């Protein structure tokens, strides 16, 4: 059983879910769960996926963050967006802010730590997918 | 100066809490060295050759007296009683213990400071003109825009894990003291203080020193300032997605700009920008007004005309006279001066300052300069608003504390990275070279006769000592395990208002023992060839490399 955090109605919680059958971009067909690489070019066809999972090659690879932002804001993708692969408990909060609503951690990782630090800050300077107003629109006026 | 709001304070405190937990987990064995590395870098902590090094962010080089006193206290409580001014306007501590760092960060947070994003592959502390808000040649104070960028880039969720480090420099003056041409993004702001919301910005991208030195390309002219963040976001997104991640030497944005061509890169940025131009990150005019309020000049009082008294003091004190000649820059307000306090004297590594000196500078700032201090990328302290009537007293006190060197812009005002004595990336030591040069050419009259010469030293290709833009640059290289030094000539960072220029390598590198002789030969060639008061740089561009080459290598050939 993969270990993951899921956000439901604004709340993050540990969730036990059966493993999805991910299909790579080459094999995937509409209606299936799609697994993409961090350097993929997002395409409107992906909107037909039952869910989209992005495979992080390393905790230091930020391409999956930009990809999520494009999926959420440019393609207006509304389904499950899953971060998987080399995902780190201390990076989870960045993933969350860029629009991932499911975060899957490698097996040796502690989900409780990830949950504890899913939102280390109560406010943010800049706009992002999960908090679309930058700080100045809240402080000025 | 910018004043933290409750929001800023809460944010920084929460960051310290998170890092405290990360440190505890690391010391507990729950985070590996590699994992912790990435987390500690983004909180300013390097592990160097001898010990950890903590780099504290000094946003755009501006500090208050209170903050500077706090840095002195940190150097006493957690370090060996000194700190180091870096070439990026920050303050570094060389000996903190890993377990103490959360407490140090808390001590910083208590005076509205932090070490966020001072290392790692993320957007670094934004740098600017050390004379911002005071310089006579300034069109608009760049610091409100730097603060806007600081806030926007702090913990930006999308751009925290870039292919490589990312440096932004901003200037609002005619002379480019921020070296915007050699940064990942360089910004030149045009406008007036009265109406910051109508300012415009020229944006340069892809400049940088390091292994492949290159000047940034102008990719956007006169961008209206409300688009500052959205346009930067577009650049960052293109870089984050397409910058190379397979080879760290090819990962800086300059390589991407070169691969796509400046026009190709600009086209991609513009295409991205078209989508986000009018997003929530478009900066409202009120926000620019609000930030600008923080940087209003102090209420300068009219100063008595003390020209006669000053002339008497100059006459009676030759060193004071020299200090006024070299260490004072023109101020916007009549009766005031911008003072640079030099950290450069033989026997002290450039930029190193003791806790006592740090406290003294903080006191002088309170007494003479509206409690404001700047750090320059030349590794000196600047007191931006000193009344001319206070200069003599300030000079006397500075001399008593070893900060009275009258050498700003002269040969001995060397920019030098920590090099092989501290830095684990170094190919060669840099500090002993700086010291040898300072001792050899200690004679003031000789230095004065030479006039303005920037001599910059880096211990390796990473170019933290900005050797490419030194009039004379020295780069440490490794030749079969031996320390050698490659000398370049004719570089400059655009100080005089001209476009910046990268130095040219003179020839084969030389052993450490020969460096001073080579510098001497270079200086002699200049002295023999110059017309009247022609500067080193002008003389070099007129006579070219050949005479220097000949003099240095003639005997060997
Ligand atoms: S230039 Fe090289 S040796 Fe000097 S501080 Fe930078 S990385 Fe270290």
What does this structure look like?
The complex is a heterodimer of chains A (141) and B (557). By secondary structure, chain A is α/β, with parallel strands linked by helices. Chain A has one domain. Chain A is 21% helix and 25% strand. Chain A has four helices and seven strands, in the order βββββαβαβαα. Chain A has helices at 63-74, 92-97, 111-116, 135-139, and strands at 3-8, 11-16, 22-24, 33-37, 51-56, 80-85, 102-104. In chain A, strands 2-1-7-6-5-4-3 form a seven-stranded mixed beta sheet. In chain A, a hairpin with a 2-residue loop joins strand 1 and strand 2 (11-16). The relative contact order of chain A is 0.17. In chain B, strands 16, 17, 18, 19, 20 and 21 form a six-stranded mixed beta sheet that branches. Chain B is globular and about 60 Å long. The model of chain B has no long low-confidence stretch (mean pLDDT 94). Iron/sulfur cluster is lined by residues 417-419, 423, 425-426, 458-460, 462-465 of chain B.
Summarize the SSE layout with pairings.
The complex is a heterodimer of chains A (141) and B (557).
Chain A: E1 3-8, E2 11-16, E3 22-24, E4 33-37, E5 51-56, H1 63-74, E6 80-85, H2 92-97, E7 102-104, H3 111-116, H4 135-139
Parallel strand pairs in A: 3-4, 4-5, 5-6, 6-7
Antiparallel strand pairs in A: 1-2, 1-7
Chain B: H1 6-27, H2 33-41, E1 45-47, E2 52-56, E3 62-64, H3 65-78, E4 82-85, E5 91-93, H4 101-110, E6 127-128, H5 143-153, E7 168-171, E8 185-190, E9 200-205, E10 217-224, H6 228-242, H7 253-276, H8 285-294, H9 307-316, H10 318-327, E11 328-330, E12 336-341, E13 352-354, H11 355-368, E14 372-375, E15 381-387, H12 391-400, E16 415-416, H13 431-440, H14 444-450, E17 455-458, E18 472-479, E19 482-489, E20 504-505, E21 510-511, H15 512-529, H16 536-543, H17 546-553
Parallel strand pairs in B: 6-7, 7-8, 16-17, 17-18
Antiparallel strand pairs in B: 1-2, 2-5, 3-14, 4-5, 4-13, 8-9, 9-10, 11-12, 12-15, 14-15, 18-19, 19-20, 19-21
Bound molecules: iron/sulfur cluster.
Iron/sulfur cluster binds next to loops of chain B.
């Amino acid at each position: 059983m993969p270990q993951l955090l899921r956000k439901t109605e604004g709340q993050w919680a540990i969730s036990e879910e059966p493993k999805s059958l991910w299909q790579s971009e080459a094999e995937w067909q509409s209606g299936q769960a799609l697994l993409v690489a961090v350097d993929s070019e997002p395409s409107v066809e992906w909107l037909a996926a039952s869910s989209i999972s992005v495979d992080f090659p390393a905790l230091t690879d930020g391409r999956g963050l930009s990809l999520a932002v494009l999926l959420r804001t440019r393609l207006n993708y509304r389904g499950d967006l899953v971060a998987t692969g080399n995902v780190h408990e201390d990076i989870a909060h960045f993933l969350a802010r860029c629009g991932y609503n499911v975060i899957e951690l490698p097996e040796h990782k502690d989900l409780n730590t990830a949950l504890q630090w899913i939102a280390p800050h109560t406010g943010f300077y800049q706009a992002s997918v999960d908090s679309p107003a930058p700080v100045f629109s809240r402080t000025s006026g | 100066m910018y004043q933290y709001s409750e929001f800023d304070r809460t944010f920084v405190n929460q960051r310290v809490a998170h890092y405290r937990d990360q440190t505890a987990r690391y010391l507990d064995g729950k985070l590996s060295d590699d994992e912790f590395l990435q987390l500690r870098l983004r909180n300013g902590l390097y592990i160097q050759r001898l010990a950890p090094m903590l780099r504290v962010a000094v946003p755009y080089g501006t500090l208050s007296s209170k903050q500077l006193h706090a840095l002195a206290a940190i150097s006493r409580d957690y370090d060996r009683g000194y700190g180091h001014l870096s070439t990026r306007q920050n303050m570094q501590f060389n000996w903190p213990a890993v377990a103490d760092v959360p407490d140090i960060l808390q001590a910083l947070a208590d005076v509205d400071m932090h070490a966020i994003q001072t290392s790692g592959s993320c957007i670094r502390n934004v740098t600017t003109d050390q004379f911002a808000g005071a310089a006579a040649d300034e069109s608009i104070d760049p610091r409100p825009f730097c603060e806007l960028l600081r806030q926007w880039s702090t913990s930006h969720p999308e751009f925290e894990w870039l292919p490589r480090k990312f440096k932004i420099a901003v200037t609002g003056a005619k002379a480019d003291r921020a070296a915007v041409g050699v940064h990942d993004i360089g910004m030149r702001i045009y406008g007036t203080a009265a109406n910051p919301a109508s300012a415009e910005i020229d944006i340069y991208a892809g400049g940088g020193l390091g292994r492949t030195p290159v000047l940034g390309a102008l990719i956007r002219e006169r961008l209206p300032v409300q688009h500052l963040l959205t346009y930067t976001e577009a650049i960052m997104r293109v870089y984050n997605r397409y910058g190379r991640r397979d080879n760290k030497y090819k990962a800086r944005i300059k390589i991407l700009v070169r691969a796509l061509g400046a026009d190709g890169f600009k086209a991609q940025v513009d295409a991205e920008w078209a989508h986000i131009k009018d997003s929530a990150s478009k900066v409202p005019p009120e926000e620019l007004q609000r930030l600008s309020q923080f940087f209003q000049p102090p209420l300068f009082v009219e100063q008595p005309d003390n020209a006669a008294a000053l002339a008497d003091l100059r006459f009676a004190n030759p060193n004071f006279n020299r200090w006024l000649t070299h260490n004072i820059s023109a101020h916007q307000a009549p009766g005031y001066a911008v003072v640079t306090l030099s950290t450069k004297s033989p026997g002290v590594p450039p930029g190193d300052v003791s806790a006592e000196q740090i406290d003294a500078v903080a006191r002088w700032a309170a007494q003479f300069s509206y409690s404001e201090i700047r750090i320059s990328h030349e590794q000196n302290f600047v007191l931006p608003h000193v009344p001319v009537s206070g200069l003599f007293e300030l000079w006397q006190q500075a001399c008593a504390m070893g900060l009275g060197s009258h050498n700003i812009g002269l040969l001995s005002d060397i920019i030098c990275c920590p090099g092989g004595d501290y830095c684990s990336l170094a190919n060669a030591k840099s500090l002993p070279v700086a010291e040898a040069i300072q001792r050899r050419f200690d004679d003031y009259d000789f230095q004065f006769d030479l006039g303005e010469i920037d001599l910059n030293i880096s211990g390796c290709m990473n170019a933290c000592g900005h050797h490419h833009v030194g009039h004379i640059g020295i780069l440490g290289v490794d030749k079969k395990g031996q320390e050698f030094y490659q000398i370049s000539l004719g570089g400059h960072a655009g100080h005089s208002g001209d476009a910046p220029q990268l130095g040219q390598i003179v020839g084969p590198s030389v052993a450490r023992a020969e460096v001073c002789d080579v510098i001497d030969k270079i200086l002699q060639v200049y002295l023999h060839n110059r017309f009247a008061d022609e500067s080193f740089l002008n003389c070099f561009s007129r006579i070219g490399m050949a005479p220097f080459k000949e003099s240095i290598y003639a005997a060997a050939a």
